[in-house]
Amino acid sequence: MTRTRVPAAPPPGRRTVLAALAGAALGAAGCSGRRAPAEHPSHTPTAAHPSQRSSTGTGSPSPSPALPRTTPWRPTSAEVQPAAKLRAVQLVEAIGAWAGGHGGAAAARARVAALGLPTALAGQAGPLLPTADQAALQVVDAQYGGILSRSASVLVVCRQWTRRAGTVSAGGTTVDVRLSRSGAGWTVDALHPARPGPAARSPAPDIRSVLSDDRIVLPPAAVADLRSGQVHTSVAKAMLALARTYRLEVSVVRSGHPLNVFGTGRPSDHPRGRAFDVWRIDGHAVVDPATPRSLIERFMRDAAAAGSYNVGGPVLLSGGGAGQFFSDATHHDHVHIGFRT
Predict the structure, then answer these.
(1) Summary mean pLDDT of the chain
(2) Which of 22, 52, 131, 231 is most buried as measured by Cβ atoms within 10 A of its Cβ?
């Protein structure tokens, strides 16, 4: 089964399983810092990408540039708890996109209320709700930051285009959506948008190489993470090594991920800039049952060979160092690649 996808187009400039695991405990937590439960990504529709910035001319009036068409992201039955992902994505889509004349906090609260969710969530949207006349949003992927029996973290990775005073700008963020489960289904409790921090004056050479490598597809928050200077070069070196063999589509690097391995008090490697997640390999979504297991297994072993001490995914591999490979419900939809330094 595949997800609804938006026709893929080249990123602006350079940038840009199976049904529920049999016997896999939903008590598995979020992205790890050692052998343990960790995070997880899903499938990705990718919107057509306009230029990073376009503006009207100064001579005779010209039509305002159009925002790209986007497609709602929807999970399939191959997901672990698809209803949780759907709830998280619907909220992000509702807050982050609006027609002309419907911007602002009050309109966002109304869109949240229409979903039957607390309107206070609009106040937690941060960069998802910029000042703009109009906005379009495309969810790239929704992966688990953690999934337990009655709570979840869904990391909603998105691109966003905004129009303000006739100028269209491209951006986006990743939002850690926290949910809880009751008899009525999943509800959203909180939003934690990515906060990558300002760009460093001069990124390390390996970081610059990653940012210019067309075989490494990075969403906006991940690009900002790398530019911030807060990502270890071990991550960049591994990305470059893997890109020699695969086209890898990254979902999460540092920001937008839970600070701790979900459901534990143990710090995650992600916020410390020592991990990255891959949701699609050579055009095949990790969560898609049609993706060859052999491709995922080979990719996971190559990630370990690239220096990762902690490789998690939908397949539990044998061999490696103690606890080097792991699998759980959280990682049913992505491959986690972590480093000690």
Answers:
(1) 86
(2) 231
Per-residue CA distances from 239 to 213, 243, 305 (Å): 10, 6, 12
Instruction: List alpha helices for the chain, DSSP H.
Output: 82-96, 105-114, 205-211, 220-227, 233-243, 293-305
310-313 and 325-327 strand pairing: parallel
| Least confident piece of the model among 31-45, 228-242, 314-328 | 31-45
- Report how far residue 49's alpha carbon sits from residue 64's, in angstroms, rounded to the nearest whole number: 16
Eight-state DSSP code of residue 212: T
Which residue from 335, 174, 332, 180 is spatially nearest to 257, judged by alpha carbons? Answer: 174
Helix (H, G, I), strand (E, B) or coil at 190: strand
**104 in the Ramachandran plot: left (φ > 0), alpha (ψ -120 to 50) or beta?**
left
Spatial CA neighbour of 253 closest among 233, 273, 228: 273
Residues 91, 190: contact at Cβ < 8 Å? Answer: no
Backbone angles phi, psi at 30, to 5 degrees: -90, -170
pLDDT tens, position by position, 131-178:
999 999 999 999 999 999 999 999 999 999 999 988 999 999 999 999
What amino acid occupies position 23?
G
Confirm if 225 and 251 have CB atoms less than 8 A apart.
Answer: no
- Taking the C-alpha atoms of residue 321 and residue 286, their distance in angstroms, rounded to an integer, is 23
Residue 110's pLDDT is 98
CA gap 285, 8 in Å, rounded? 14
**Cα Rg of the chain, angstroms:** 19
Tally of CA atoms within 13 A in the half-sphere of 69 that contains its CB: 5
Q: Are 122 and 105 in contact, with CB atoms under 8 Å apart?
A: yes
Sign, Cα dihedral of 184, 189, 192, 193: positive
Residue showing tokens 């992201």? 73
pLDDT band (50, 70, 90) for residue 31: low
For residue 284, give the amino acid letter.
H
